[in-house]
Design a protein that fits this description.
Number of strands: 20
InterPro entries: NIR_SIR_4Fe-4S, NiRdtase/SiRdtase_haem-b_fer, Nit/Sulf_reduc_fer-like_dom_sf, NO2/SO3_Rdtase_4Fe4S_sf
Protein name: Precorrin-3B synthase
Structural class: alpha+beta
CATH architecture of the largest domain: Alpha-Beta Complex
Pfam families: NIR_SIR_ferr
Number of helices: 9
Radius of gyration: 21 Å
Distance between the termini: 17 Å
Helix content: 10-25%
CATH class of the largest domain: Alpha Beta
Strand order of the largest sheet: 6-7-8-9-10-11
CATH topology of the largest domain: Sulfite Reductase Hemoprotein, domain 2
Order of helices and strands: EEEHEEHEHEEEEHHEEEEHEEHEHEEEH
Keywords: 4Fe-4S, Heme, Iron, Iron-sulfur, Metal-binding, Oxidoreductase
């Protein structure tokens, strides 16, 4: 069995993943990425972030594919002011660990009656505290990902490095990469994920690997076996996975809540291209303050607000369109994402977001709605393809102006790992063609996950 994805990076330098303290220089200023464990933000924290975006940045708050938040257009001199603002809002609990607080959790857990675990709010917060209190965890990459899956399989589709999925109300299945390894009592779950992460660092360093993530390991057998050994030593009550593991992926892309009503008292609202102005976020914060006090961000670049009265939910849905939010599954903008593009990124060949908005306007003008079976669409300004889904999707990649092919974009089905880029024939508007609502073509190779399973010999 394959042990590493083709083209997996060999990490030869330090992790330069941006954070709240380590800003990234872009063409439109500096960028800060604020980790939001489990997507949980209090209404006061949203107000603080909106204030930072409007007074220090470009006035926008953007969601990443992990439900984290980004502020663009910052001045390098405002780094200290931003960190003080975030710290006072409780968004910077550890200066040494702030970039490793990457926790994704099932966004609808405890809200829609599905799943096994119920609410994951307390579990997310407890895991965040434990990671921040574990000195060795500070050596993790800013890309290492923890997952808490309430049993429905949505988070596992994001391929966390270490994950727990509830198999009953009192037991979880622990996975490394995409490989289930042990079943543990739920009360041991937080400690187990932390032990696994530290064991990854220790075992990786012992064999002088440079991988930042488990799926990047060139020779994962020894490292994964060491992680499993550390788990079994720390948790003798653990038992091997038997039968068909629940963590075997059954979905072709992450399941995020559909736009609109969610459960009895919640609503899910994707953001257009994952971005909204600070004024929209302030409105959401005000609504959440009168509900359960939380604005939940999701890996699907949406927000979830729960604890709403029937009247409050109806009012929110009525005004969501004016706020630039998506409210129904037929909206052509649903599932469409794009990198920053020009002018924010100097590496981009085009203003991809402007192009996408123009294409969406054409699709809407022509009266299209989005078919439920459509794959997600991602538009990239260069071959780096920043922000692309780690799951089957359709993708358009901008063609550099100096390229002999005059078309602005090449398009391809992408499985989350590579996009070859084959131009469509004459007469096609690539973006309108991708976004327009026709039944999804779904080549067989798109059914497989984008990273391999770890060797079977690594399982206990």
């Amino acid at each position: 069995m394959s042990t590493t994805p083709p083209g997996s990076p060999v990490r030869v330098g330090g992790d330069r993943c941006p954070g709240a303290l380590r800003l990234h220089e872009a063409a439109d200023g500096y960028l800060a990425r604020i980790r939001v464990p489990g997507g949980l933000l209090t209404s006061d924290q949203v107000i603080a972030l909106a204030d930072a975006a409007s007074t220090l940045g470009d006035g926008q708050l953007s969601l990443t594919a992990r439900g984290n938040l980004e502020i663009r257009g910052l001045d390098a001199a405002d780094g200290d002011r931003l960190s003080r603002l975030l710290d006072s809002a409780g968004l910077l609990p550890s200066a040494t660990h702030e970039r490793i607080r990457n926790i994704v959790a099932s966004p609808a857990a405890g809200l829609d009656g599905s799943g096994v675990s119920g609410s994951l709010v307390d579990a997310v917060r407890a895991l965040d505290r434990l990671l921040c209190d574990t000195a060795r965890a500070a050596d993790l990459s800013g890309r290492f990902l923890f997952g808490l899956d309430d049993g429905r399989g949505d988070v596992l589709a994001l391929q966390p490095d270490v994950a727990a999925q509830w198999v009953s109300t009192d037991h979880v299945e622990v996975s490394l990469g995409r490989t289930p390894v042990l079943v543990l009592p739920a009360e041991a779950m937080l400690a187990a994920l932390t032990v696994a992460a530290v064991a990854f660092l220790n075992a990786r360093d012992a064999v002088r690997e440079t991988a930042w993530r488990i799926t990047e390991l060139v020779n994962p057998t020894a490292t994964v076996a060491a992680i499993v050994g550390a788990l079994r030593a720390s948790f003798p009550q653990a038992r091997p996975v038997t039968g068909s593991p629940v963590s075997a992926p059954v979905e072709t892309h992450p399941v995020t809540p559909a736009p609109g009503p969610l459960g009895a008292d919640a609503v899910a609202l994707p953001l257009l291209l994952g971005t909204a102005p600070a004024t929209t976020w302030l409105t959401l914060a005000s609504i959440a303050a009168s509900a359960d006090g939380l604005v939940r961000t999701t890996p699907g670049r949406s927000v979830v607000i729960a604890g709403l009265t029937a009247d409050a939910r109806r009012e929110l849905l009525d005004q969501a369109g004016e706020l630039g939010l998506i409210t129904h599954a037929g909206d052509p903008a649903l599932g469409v994402s794009a990198c920053t593009g020009l002018p924010g990124c100097a590496s981009s060949a085009r203003d991809v977001r402007g192009d996408v908005l123009d294409a969406l306007a054409t699709v809407v003008r022509d009266g299209h709605t989005r078919a439920p079976a459509r794959l997600p669409v991602h538009v990239s300004g260069c071959e780096r393809r920043c922000g692309h889904p780690r799951s089957p999707h359709r993708e358009a990649v901008a063609i550099p102006a100096e390229h002999p092919d005059a078309r602005p974009y090449a398009t391809t089905p992408a499985d989350g790992d590579s996009a070859a880029g084959a131009p469509l024939g004459d007469g096609h508007d690539v973006l309108v063609d991708l976004i327009g609502a026709r039944p999804a073509e779904h080549p067989r190779h798109l059914d497989r996950p984008d990273s391999p399973e770890l060797p079977q010999g690594t399982q206990p």
